[in-house]
Write a structure and sequence with these properties.
By secondary structure, the chain is an alpha/beta fold. Helix content is 26%, strand content 15%. It has a single domain (5-96), classed as Oxidized Rhodanese, domain 1, CATH 3.40.250. The protein has four helices and five strands; from the N terminus they run E-H-E-H-E-E-H-E-H.
Amino acid sequence: MTEIEEISTDELAKLDLENICLVDVREEYEFIEMRVPGALLLPLGEVPEHVDKFPLDRPVYLICASGNRSKVAGDFLSKFHIEAINIAGGTKAWVSSGRAYKYGDVDLPHF
């Protein structure tokens, strides 16, 4: 099995967050606490039933709390020829770096 690509939160910060496919695979309560701007919520357990929604023409950036669940999601999606890129360090690394983040449960952006 090939390893999926992994980038740091510094590399993520250089991308146009509103125009990439950034999927957060944490649970909804975690997503409400803090999330990277532009991230869409799709809990890990729901990824298999939504495989057909993932784009095949551009990379999918996956994030969770620390990078473990998003790697699991990426390994799964890669079996369907979806270009998955894991965000090492996850949302915790993003927030602890001092970058702006969103929170709250108003208009939760679901994948």
